[in-house]
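Morning F.,

Quick status update on the modeling queue. The single chain you submitted on Monday has been processed. Sequence for confirmation:
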Amino acid sequence: MSATPKTQFGYGYNINHKKIQKFNNLPIPKVGPNEILLKIEAAGLCLSDPHTLIAGPLPQQPPLKNKEKFIMGHEIAGSVYEIGSEIEKNLKNTNNKYQKGKRFALQINYCCGHCEFCRIGLDGSCSSTNQAYGLNEDGGFQQYLLIKNLRTLLPIPDNVSFEDAAVCTDSVLTPFHAIQKVKHKIQPTSKILVQGCGGLGLNAIQILKNYGCFIVATDKKEDIKSTALSYGANEFYNDIEEDSNHESQSFDIIFDFVGIQQTVDISNNYLKKRGTLSMIGLGKFQLILPNFLFAVREIEVIYNFGGNSIEQIECMKWISKGLIKPNVTIVDFNKLPDALEDLINDKVRGRVVFRPNKL
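Structure tokens below.
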């Protein structure tokens, strides 16, 4: 293996700017005794990235304070490039788990492993820390990333690409997590509406089709119709209220991957009594829910954010078995700012992934 370079470049957040910044001549961190240097093989672009630039990073949990600058990119997959001295000593006792060249996807949040949520397997809701790769700590929009919390390293199956593994950390995991919460309600006769066929919505359709339910998908983009149908949607509409004959209060479950007032209002119109609204999209910071109308129909509203490490490992198994095929477009890392503008301007279909070490 060639010597580790001394510097790299990356893209990230600067408190003084609303657009992503390129950082040149970044020093590559030295590896501590119990740390790993990960070579970034793939990093995904997400709508949370422009949200971070506009609204600021995910708030840190005191006494930590938000950083004024950090490298963004929270969908990350890579290979072990360098290991710390203590890990080197213990390799025989860990079955070479962290051997150089081993492939890992990252769990986005820094799970502590000992809080009440981590101890019951809900490490995605860790209460001890609110640190997250690319959202308030250095992430994957660079060539090398120092891993201090080894719990965040999740092994990638041999037949899963780095690109698919990176996308799995959020674009697949988030809808998977939301669906797992309500899967006990999904029957072959269940009628389900998926609002929004972006990166997450398309993956939700692929996950849902494995439950044999009837899936109706909606999106304002007409050109996404063929993809949604090929992924498992039974019907697709640009405007379900104008274009379809579906009766009001006729859906058992609605997954909202948009998160704006219009989609909430559509859910109110189409959810049947004792139906479930699963909120995932973050299109607006605040929404008005029809309190009385939801109450008298006993509508269940569930909010979702990310997922847990065991679910992420399961997602990669689904990809390995061909049950999910992420819709990935690989873009030159040097063109990251342009790809981000395309995402903001609704020109992206599926998920954009960069390969920082293939320049």
